[in-house]
Design brief:
Herpes Virus-1, metal-binding, two-stranded antiparallel sheet, disordered N terminus
Length: about 280
């Protein structure tokens, strides 16, 4: 009876929630991607194409360094260390460590190298594709197995028969409600903006602010329209399409003038502040 109670206590102490195991995999992927991005930023300062043909080797060295300083040293990946979990040390003897390195580092390098350099070997590429599809299927089956048993979330863990253990006992995972609260507040604020912004007349507001910031506001009387080969639209500053004017000497594209007057009933010429409710086509004599 005492032995059974001890085994039960040991199982509870070594229990690792499924969410922690899945999160450790996600953290490992994020750490790898972050380091790869940093390496890419460093390689950008080198002449173009200098190390592009060595990309598989660069990834292999990165993965090897991560494996040595995590699995080889601490029997846990960096993502697992962040969540206070690790592999059972007695389940990873030297032979299994070598197999773990082969499956997680050497084989991905071989696949990437073959896809990068042996593109002319169509038969080899088909074999690699078939193996990759089979691994995807096996990963799916192993994932459903993990959801039921709660152990060995990755295919490598299942093949080697290694389990996780908790480094700080069977503690409940703390949930940061402050982060959830910030997200809810931000989501509510964005929803409020999305509801109110369509009711704000941006064009009229911009015109009123521009008039308020001016020390003197003068509305010029109608002047003679100037239109020649070099004339640009007073609003978009591009070559005029269908020239129109609103009574001052400045010429607008039809769509620029019509669109602004539809958006803002009090639209003024953005050059001389002339205001008119109508506009006419510029007639070249």
């Amino acid at each position: 009876m005492a032995t059974a109670n001890q085994n039960t206590g040991k199982m509870k102490a070594n229990f690792v929630p499924r969410v922690n195991q899945l999160d450790s995999i996600q953290l490992d992927n994020e750490i790898t991607n972050l380091l790869r991005q940093q390496i890419q930023n460093i390689l950008q300062v080198l002449p173009p194409g200098l190390l592009s043909h060595l990309q598989p080797e660069v990834n292999f060295l990165l993965n090897s360094a991560l494996w040595i300083f995590s699995i080889r040293t601490c029997y846990a990946t960096f993502g697992q260390q962040m969540l206070s979990i690790a592999y059972e040390k007695d389940q990873l003897p030297t032979r299994k460590l070598a197999l773990h390195y082969l499956l997680t580092t050497v084989l991905p390098y071989a696949k990437e190298s073959s896809q990068y350099r042996l593109t002319r070997w169509s038969s080899l590429q088909k074999v690699v594709q078939l193996v990759e599809n089979a691994l995807v299927l096996f990963n799916l089956v192993n994932f459903f197995k993990f959801l039921r048993s709660g152990t060995r979330p990755s295919l490598v863990d299942c093949l080697l028969g290694i389990n996780h253990r908790s480094l700080d006992g069977a503690k409940r995972r703390n949930i940061g409600y402050s982060y959830m609260t910030r997200e809810l507040v931000w989501a509510g604020f964005m929803e409020l903006l999305g509801f109110t912004i369509p009711f704000v007349n941006y064009h009229a507001l911009k015109r009123k602010l521009r008039n308020m910031l001016r020390l003197e506001t003068t509305h010029r009387q109608a002047e003679r329209v100037e239109l020649n080969a070099d004339t640009r639209c007073a609003y978009c500053n591009e070559r005029i399409i269908l020239p129109h004017h609103m009574g001052c000497r400045h010429v607008f594209c039809y769509l620029c003038l019509k669109g602004n007057q539809l958006a803002d009933a009090g639209f003024q010429c953005n050059v001389c502040d002339f205001r008119s409710d109508t506009f006419r086509k510029v007639v070249v004599l």
